């Protein structure tokens, strides 16, 4: 199936993170947040501000690493979060669900929330904001840059 792209702007990301924070408030208070690096760092910072949480731990899982023959590696464990009781895990998105599955195994008592969820990863989340089709690649603001596009009237000039 052909890949399509969904571009998320900074404004949209901020709005979606605030929406998630709103739904998280009744599930708290939380002892702390575990941000899944790197994609979960900015969503976690926005949510931490909204829910007034100052304790932030991180976990890092490398899933697509040829050196380790595709076997996921936990390169930073979320030690300060114990078994996850009272903690909130934040990532930007779930796709296959592999990252979420590993993080949940490390923190079985934590709540897992993310901004965007594809169908395969959706069952691994407790909460998300927007569902995205499996074949759609989400382009985050940190993945993209504004690009000059020539005016339509000059298109034939540039093509020739
Ligand atoms: O559900 P999955 O198939 O595991 O994919 C989801 C994960 O993939 C991306 O992280 P990535 O591993 O690309 O690293 P990054 O956050 O450092 O960019 C994204 O930030 C999620 O953490
Ligand atoms: N940026 C980005 N990273 C991913 N990692 C797994 N799926 C995705 C996706 O859709 N977008
Ligand atoms: Mg990630």
Automatic annotation (TrEMBL):
Function statement: Purine salvage pathway enzyme that catalyzes the transfer of the ribosyl-5-phosphate group from 5-phospho-alpha-D-ribose 1-diphosphate (PRPP) to the N9 position of the 6-oxopurines guanine and xanthine to form the corresponding ribonucleotides GMP (guanosine 5'-monophosphate) and XMP (xanthosine 5'-monophosphate), with the release of PPi. To a lesser extent, also acts on hypoxanthine.
Protein's recorded name: Xanthine-guanine phosphoribosyltransferase
Membrane topology according to the record: Peripheral membrane protein
Binding site for xanthine: 95, 138
Annotated binding of guanine, by residue: 95, 138
Locations listed in the record: Cell membrane
GO biological process, any: GMP salvage
Residues annotated for 5-phospho-alpha-D-ribose 1-diphosphate binding in this entry: 38-39, 91-99
Listed HAMAP family: XGPRT (MF_01903)
Short name of any one Pfam family annotated for the protein: Pribosyltran
């Amino acid at each position: 199936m052909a890949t399509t792209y969904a571009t998320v702007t900074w404004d949209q990301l901020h709005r979606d993170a605030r929406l998630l924070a709103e739904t998280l408030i009744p599930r708290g208070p939380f002892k702390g947040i575990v941000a899944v690096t790197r994609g979960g760092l900015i969503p976690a910072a926005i949510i931490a501000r909204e829910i007034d949480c100052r304790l932030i731990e991180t976990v890092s899982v490398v899933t697509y690493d040829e050196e380790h023959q595709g076997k996921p590696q936990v390169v930073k464990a979320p030690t300060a979060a114990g078994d996850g009781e009272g903690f909130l895990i934040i990532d930007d998105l779930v796709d296959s669900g592999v990252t979420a599955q590993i993080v949940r195994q490390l923190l079985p008592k934590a709540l897992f929330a993310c901004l965007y969820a594809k169908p395969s990863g959706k069952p691994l989340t407790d909460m998300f904001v927007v569902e995205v089709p499996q074949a759609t690649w989400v382009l985050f603001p940190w993945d993209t840059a504004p690009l000059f596009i020539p005016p339509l009237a000059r298109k034939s000039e540039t093509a020739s």
